[in-house]
Structure formats: structure tokens, C-alpha cells
Amino acid sequence: MIRLSPASLPPRTARVVSLFLAVAGIACLVWGWHSHRSAPPPQPPRAESLPRQPDAEAGSRPGPSPLPESEPLRVRIPRTGVDAPLMRLGLDRDRRLDVPPPTDRNLAGWYKDGVTPGDTGTALITGHVDTKTGPAVFYSLGALKQGDTIRVVRKDGRTAVFTVYAVEVFSGTDFPDEKVYGASARPELRVLTCGGGYDRARHEYLGNVVVFARMSAIA
């Protein structure tokens, strides 16, 4: 299980949403399956945890023009075989981002009060790494590498294609809100799940895997 509660989530373009939340990062609780398995979910290798600046990496090549707002319907990640529907995620009574229900292991969610993937700004997708019945939608998120693609199918019939430029692991007690959720002048995407080691005594992950990607094509 994951619980996302950053100090400031990316607001929807042209509609500023001020969020004052108590705890930064993602508090990761596990439903029990982790303690019975022998191998943890993959974590990014050291080379993948050194983010490149997207502007510098792209050089002078212009990216595709931002898309208008349109609800995302599915997320597809070819390297890990993810092909999952997306549900809307809002804030719970504690002003934390809610999570997809653990009854569906192949379900992710997007922050509905942020920008939609493909629009200008930083869009956010999150999902479970595992549940009490086994691996979940983002179990292999840490295996992504620079240059991999993430495809987000939108309600308007277009697919926003994002290219990964960094994969990082952050401690749950020292989560860099601005680095992860900060505003962007181009269409960016963050995909998050639990990771960074596991505390068997408390049955919880110690941190978060975060994938940084920018829109590189429209299909």
C-alpha cells in the first residue's frame, strides 16, 4: 500500500491548488505479501539514479507541443509489460492523496487535481508495488532505464509518449518535494511507487521509487 502526502503537489494548469500536507513523500505500508517472498522488487541501479537535466539532454531539439487537457485512461510501460487502467485520485480527509484499492493489482491512479499527462506541467501517476496477494502494477518500476518509454492513453484518442530520463530512490524521511513535484514549462511525468528497502519488523518500505520522464512524442 502507498500513501502519498507531499507538501505541495503539482497544480492543474491555470488553476492553482494549494495543498498543505503534514508529511512529505509516500508512506508505504505493505499488505503482507512481502514478508513471505524471497526477493524484493527491483531497484534502479546506481547509473539510473543520477538524473540528467532534460533540457540539457534534449539539446536544441524541440519537443512536441503540449496537448490540451484530457483525462488519462491507461498507462503502458513496454519494458515491464504494464498495461493498466487509470483511476482518478483525490485527497482524503487528512489531505493526503488517496490510493487505488488493493483489491485490483493491475490498477494505477492519476492525481486529478494536477495537470493531465501531455499538458504543460508535471503530471503524477502512482500505484502499488505489491499487495497481500502478490506483485502489483508497479512492482518492476525500479527496473526502468533511461530511454525507456511510458505511454499514457488519453480520452481524446491521443497517446502521450514520455521518455524516461532518470529513475531515483528517495528515503521516506527525506523526500525532495520540489525536485519531484516542482513546476515545469514542458509536459513532464512522474511515476511513483514504494521501494528503497524493506523493514520486516514494521512491515513497510523505507522509501519511494520515482521515475522522471518528459513527453517526447504524440501517437
Describe the structure concisely for a colleague.
The protein is mainly beta. The protein is built from two helices and twelve strands; from the N terminus they run E-E-H-E-E-E-E-E-E-E-E-H-E-E.
Task: Identify the CATH class.
Answer: Mainly Beta
- Counting helices, strands and paired strands, the structural category is mainly beta
Strand tally:
12
For the biggest sheet, the summary is:
8 strands, mixed, barrel
Calculate Rg over CA atoms. Answer: 16 Å
User: Helix tally?
Assistant: 2
- Side by side, the strands of the main sheet go 3-4-5-6-11-12-10-9
Q: Give the SSE string.
A: EEHEEEEEEEEHEE
Mean pLDDT: 79
CATH fold-level topology: Sortase, Chain: A
What is the CATH architecture term?
Answer: Beta Barrel
Approximate strand percentage:
35-45%
Helix percentage range: under 10%
Distance between the termini: 32 Å
Q: Report the CATH superfamily.
A: Sortase
The outline comes out as globular
Summed up, the domain count is 1
Low-confidence parts: 1-8, 13-27, 56-60
What is the chains' assembly state?
single chain
Describe what you observe in this structure.
By secondary structure, the chain is mainly beta. 5% of the residues lie in helices and 37% in strands. The protein is built from two helices and twelve strands. The strands form three sheets. An eight-stranded mixed β-barrel has the order 3-4-5-6-11-12-10-9. Strands 1-2 form a two-stranded antiparallel ribbon. A two-stranded antiparallel sheet has the order 7-8. The model is unreliable at 1-8, 13-27 and 56-60 (pLDDT under 50).
